[in-house]
From TrEMBL:
Keywords for this protein: Glycosidase, Hydrolase
Family matches, as Pfam families: Glyco_hydro_32N
EC number: 3.2.1.26
Source organism (scientific name): Nocardioides vastitatis
Family in the record: Belongs to the glycosyl hydrolase 32 family.
Tagged with keyword Translocase: no
Domain of life of the organism encoding this protein: Bacteria
Keyword Hydrolase: yes
Residue ranges of coiled coil: none
Domain Glycosyl hydrolase family 32 N-terminal residue range list: 16-284
Record-given protein name: beta-fructofuranosidase
Length: 340
């Protein structure tokens, strides 16, 4: 577990190099007292581990830029990949003072060793009204365009970026979609049409990730109950980490109506990775305690497994407070019955 005495930690992403796991995470000082203020003070911290459990904090990776800049207020969630030359690229979200933190854009930084990072001088991507909701649409609290997840579908193919974004049409809490961009070289990006449709009952799909877990592809995202449609809330569904089985390519399209909950809102911002034994596990941050107060620390990994027919990913022996009511009868199992 990673708990910092001086800072809250929340969203995070991982890289692995020569047996060492590198954890990059959002952090903000506990001296703020009110954790709701953390978003506007966020920097990107860094810790290392050889087992995903015991972490050593090292120098922070990134802080906001001097004004004016697209990230001169705060630096938010991203991902890290390595190019053919061995150079590491971090793609992350920036919010600025001019936009009062309401306009999200995607920037990049590079490193030769994962320790010292240098920001790319140019903006990588911003929302485009051809496909994605803008702040001027006045339908959401901000211009959602963040949490870039970058990966390659084939060794010689283009790079893909999944983006937390919103459609321009539809009910307010149904517009959450998977944004998409492509690049031949990680430096030059072209925004594409989204990889999912709205109307799945989610206002936004946060902290996206795609992986192939035990031969089955899956999309992971997080969403709070306050950002879900009234139909989902009326049906008794609440938020947490969600998984979507992928029937086709890792580049979609994704059917978000197939989403199933992995956790309650006690855990959030889940990330899948293989542990040192080669087993797939999920890390998440401790979001809320039993009284509903923000916690802000990164939990130990929990193994994951598919149910018998591959329709849903489930946690194996998770903390009791993470277990959604619909899963309570299956805690401790390594295979799960199909959701009703």
């Amino acid at each position: 577990m990673l708990r910092l005495p001086s800072s809250w930690t929340w969203d995070f992403w991982l890289a692995q190099d020569q047996g060492t796991y590198h954890l990059f995470f959002l952090k903000a000082s506990r001296a703020l007292h009110d954790p709701d203020l953390r978003h506007w003070r966020a920097t990107i911290g860094h810790a290392v581990s050889d087992d995903l459990r015991c972490w050593t904090e090292v120098a922070d990776a990134l802080v906001p830029s001097d004004s004016p800049a697209p990230d001169d207020l705060a630096t938010w969630t991203g991902s890290v990949v390595r190019d053919e030359s061995g150079l590491w690229w971090m793609f992350y979200t920036g919010v600025d003072r001019e936009g009062r933190g309401q306009v999200q854009r995607i920037r990049a930084a590079t490193s030769t060793d994962l320790m010292t990072w240098y920001k790319h001088p140019d903006l990588i991507l911003e929302s485009d009204a051809r496909w994605y909701e803008k702040l001027s649409d006045d339908n959401w609290q901000d211009e959602a365009f963040r949490d870039p997840w970058v990966f390659r579908d084939a060794p010689d193919g283009p790079w893909h970026m999944l983006i937390t974004a919103r459609a321009r049409t539809g009910p307010q809490y149904d517009r959450g979609i998977v944004g998409h961009a492509t690049s031949p070289d990680l430096e030059n990006w072209e925004l594409q049409s989204p990889l999912s449709q709205p109307d799945a009952g989610f206002g936004q799909l946060e902290v996206l990730q795609v992986e192939e877990v035990d031969g089955r592809r899956v999309l992971l995202f997080s969403c709070l109950h306050t950002e879900m449609s009234q139909d989902r809330r009326t049906a008794g569904q609440v938020g947490g980490v969600w998984s979507v089985p992928i029937d086709g390519a890792t580049t979609g399209p994704f059917d978000i109506t197939k989403a199933r909950r992995l956790t309650t809102e006690a855990a959030y911002s889940g990330r899948l990775i293989k542990d040192p034994t080669g087993r797939w596990v999920m890390l998440a941050f401790h979001h809320l305690d039993e009284g509903g107060s923000f916690v802000g620390e990164i939990a130990d990994p929990v193994p994951v497994a598919w149910n018998a027919d591959g329709t849903a990913l489930r946690l194996v022996d998770p903390p009791a407070e993470w277990v959604p009511e619909e899963h309570e009868a299956t805690v401790g199992a390594t295979r799960y019955p199909t959701d009703s």
